[in-house]
Amino acid sequence: MDIAGKVAVVTGGSAGIGLAIAKALADAGAGAIVIGDIDDTKGEAAVAGIIDKGAKSVYKHTDVSNADKVRALYEEAVNNFGQVDIAFNNAGIMLGEPGWPDVGIEQVGRVVKINLLGVMYGTRVAVDVMSKTGGGIVINTASPAGFGPMPNDPMYSSTKAAIINFSFSCVTLQASHNIRVNTIMPGVTDTAILNKSGDGNAPAEWLQPLLGMINILTVEDIAKGAIDVIEDDSRVGEALSIENPAETGGEVGYIRLKDNTAFHERALGR
Fold first, then answer.
1. Which of 94, 107, 123, 204 is the most buried (most CB within 10 A)?
2. Pick the catalytic residue: 59, 74, 121, 156?
3. Structure pTM?
């Protein structure tokens, strides 16, 4: 996809990976970027920064765990810019403290709703909107944690595993709706979610040993991988694992994973 002139919706776009991707889209020539988030102050600041880069932008307060709010986000995009070509379902949270199993049951549900239902809602609404203008691309943010257990935060790793499976399962949308669905899986990245794994001021104790072993990725590392996926029309039904430098000889590693089951190959028409 040629990003020039395209319209994008980015959830969790007021900071961190979402904001970095929104800025990267603006740098690549996107015509307009709609930011969905719950932090209104940061959301409006994000819009101002995107406009400074030459793209149009608006902010919409959006709780992605609420289907009506997700619909309203896309309505905002269509009402302002006529279409949506790129959907980036990025909003997500961790349990925080106390961890599993001491966390309150309400927080368990909140993580599942935001991380998983938010992605499913965003993808579902994007299908309706994109179908009216010829298709597009959906990228869902998962994590390498989706491939292994996280005893202190099983909600996070389980929802990320489900996002990977969900995105693989959406491969048929390319043939039926001309919509490519892919996943990015950032390694440990320097964002606010690190501190939110703990008490909000510092990472959780259980995460500290890992942080001492790796070089933490930057949000720009993640944005680069996402832009590559958007621009390459051959990439569909993929999960891009973005690896930490210490694990890849000092350089950021990009590993393309694909569900190669017989069903997946048939779905692609191969």
1. 94
2. 156
3. 0.91
